[in-house]
Design a protein that fits this description.
Dna Ligase, domain 1; 7-stranded mixed β-sheet; globular; alpha/beta; Rossmann fold; 564 residues
Length: 564
């Protein structure tokens, strides 16, 4: 607190919370910390109705004394807590929070979080509600990726994801399989999994052969799969299909459609328990839509030992969350290295060569003060060239018409320079002109690679579609520094522009290795010169054909206001 509603210890039966409905909940191994006391009440009771069992629930409010970092530390050290739930508006002590998250990761205790602040309205509301500074949501998401925190898109998602994690099983990959008794569910699951970029491998010949004996000759053998009457007529046969699928080497998680029963007399929890006991994979039941389970339904879920998830999109996202955490479990979280660079390396006229040594080479470039000198520079570089006007007041040259492309002769360069002076005078009449930058004309896939010092969370990198696409589409991936080759590759896989890098519709593949080297090089360069750099953006970084490298066409460094 202040501005909180108290807390609950289910194990000690201490209820310092103004809602008696918490008093009768059975204890468990999930600890929850919510900055919003009202949201804690609503989420906690709903989660309990679904079978989530809590050790502690904390309403932290304005966090005048203790904050999220303190509570996470407490839950990490508590032997009875295995899963940590967070609803945060802002992180007050980012370094302390990162250290607590590091401890949770090392202890193998997953953290699930819902974070407000994706919109400007939410950020303002958070500050007025608890005085918290929400910060940049994308950067917080990058922090979550670094520390293995599962960032849930909604409170509903966090319930399904918590149920999935409560099973205690982690997948060894991201291959999902879905079983149903409905062709419509199969159709919908294709859509939901596709929208989430979930991987549903096709079944192996050996798996298909085993399933064929169980479902008969008419059902298509695919993933997701409609088991037809084989699932309706015999519940144990349905479970045998799931077991056969679980043995496929490409499958790491299995989910079968089954609504939680409301009363005895139908499904048998023993059949599900037998399935759970015969495989080490995470196994889930899922329902097409959400519904309120009965007391018997919760008892059935406990006896079956298989989480019953609700709603197909949330089921897919919960399974993806398991794969996300499973992939990162056991990874060592890298520490920030000490700066090793020198301030001189980032000075104007030096930074281009410094970046070249860091595997981020610029195109051949010559600065010229006059149109005539620019034409001579173009002759020296070799045609075609690019001509850019240089002004200390203007960073985005294209916005003021300050760039000319594909100039193929000295006369074209001179005429273009004169035109640029006229246009620039109209577009930015108060800006001064230092001269012109003549560069070799480079073609390829345009990317943006930038690093900056986030005021809350520290140094962060963005990689995405570059050039004017930066402002047209949001195709970006964020990571905390340092960025390794593995992490750089993961960032590229998240991007739509990755299709162009691979060679879209017959196009030649781009030099992906050189791009990864440049990303890693820029990460190291920024960390080495962190005391003097606040921001360093390359847009575009042009990725040429495979084997031809990259070129940092436009480099925009921003120095720190005060030297560190």
């Amino acid at each position: 607190g202040p501005n909180c509603m108290g807390n609950v210890s289910l194990r000690e039966k201490l209820f310092l919370y103004p809602n008696p409905n918490f008093n009768n909940l059975p204890p468990g191994r999930v600890g929850g910390v919510f900055q919003s006391g009202g949201t804690l009440q609503a989420w906690g009771l709903t989660a309990a109705e679904r079978g989530i069992r809590f050790s502690y629930l904390v309403s932290s409010g304005n966090e005048l004394s203790l904050d999220a970092a303190d509570y996470v530390n407490f839950l990490v050290e508590d032997a009875e807590t295995e899963l940590i739930i967070l609803m945060v508006e802002g992180i007050r002590r980012p370094d302390a929070f990162k250290e607590a998250a590091r401890k949770a990761h090392a202890a193998g205790k997953p953290i699930l979080a819902v974070k407000v602040g994706q919109t400007e309205g939410a950020r303002k509301s958070a500050q007025s509600h608890t005085g918290a500074i929400a910060g940049d949501y994308d950067v917080f998401a990058a922090l979550c990726e670094r520390y293995g925190i599962v960032l849930c898109p909604s409170l509903d998602d966090m319930i399904e994801t918590a149920l999935a994690f409560q099973s205690g099983r982690l997948p060894k990959g991201d291959g999902m399989a879905f079983m149903s008794n409905s062709g419509g569910v199969v159709d919908l699951m294709h859509d939901h999994a596709g929208q989430e970029n979930a991987r549903m491998p096709q079944l192996s010949p050996a798996t298909s052969k085993a399933i064929r004996k169980l479902v008969g000759p008419d059902m298509p053998l695919q993933n997701p799969m409609d088991c037809g009457q084989a699932g309706f007529a015999d519940e144990r046969n349905y479970m045998r299909v799931c077991e056969a699928v679980s043995k496929d080497q490409q499958i790491h998680m299995v989910a079968f459609e089954a609504r939680t029963p409301n009363a005895p007399g139908g499904k048998s929890p023993e059949a599900l328990r037998e399935l759970a006991d015969r495989t080490t994979l995470p196994i889930f039941a899922f329902c097409r839509m959400g519904h309120a389970p009965s007391e018997y339904g919760r008892q059935f879920q406990d006896e079956a030992g298989i989480p019953h998830l609700q709603s197909m999109p949330e089921t897919v996202r919960a399974m993806k969350a398991l794969a996300f955490y499973g992939k990162r479990a056991g990874r060592k979280i890298p520490a920030l290295p000490k700066p090793r660079g020198k301030k001189a390396a980032i000075q104007p006229g030096r930074i281009e060569q410094s970046l070249k040594a860091a595997k981020v080479p610029p195109p051949k470039s010559i600065f010229s003060k006059t149109a005539k000198a620019a034409a001579a520079a173009a002759q020296k570089i070799g045609f075609p060239v690019v001509l850019k006007i240089v002004s200390p007041e203007v960073s985005h040259k294209t916005e003021v018409g300050g760039v000319r492309l594909n100039l193929r002769s000295k006369s074209e360069v001179q005429e273009a320079a004169k035109d640029l002076i006229k246009l620039f005078g109209k577009a930015a009449p108060k800006a001064s002109i230092s001269g012109f930058l003549v560069q070799e004309m480079v073609s390829g896939v345009e990317m943006i690679v930038g690093v900056r010092e986030d005021p809350l969370y520290g140094p962060v990198m963005v990689v995405g579609a570059g050039g004017i696409m930066v402002e047209l589409v949001k195709d970006t991936a964020f990571r905390m520094l340092p960025v390794s080759a593995r992490v750089a590759g993961e960032m590229l896989e998240e991007l739509s522009v990755n299709a162009l890098l691979k060679g879209f519709r017959g196009g030649k593949p781009a030099d992906r290795k050189a791009l990864v080297d440049a990303i890693c090089g820029l990460s190291k360069f920024f960390l080495d010169h962190r005391p003097w750099l606040a921001d360093l953006e390359i847009n575009p970084l042009i990725v040429r054909e495979k084997g031809k490298g990259v070129r940092a066409v436009d480099i925009r460094p921003i120095a720190c206001q005060t030297d560190g």
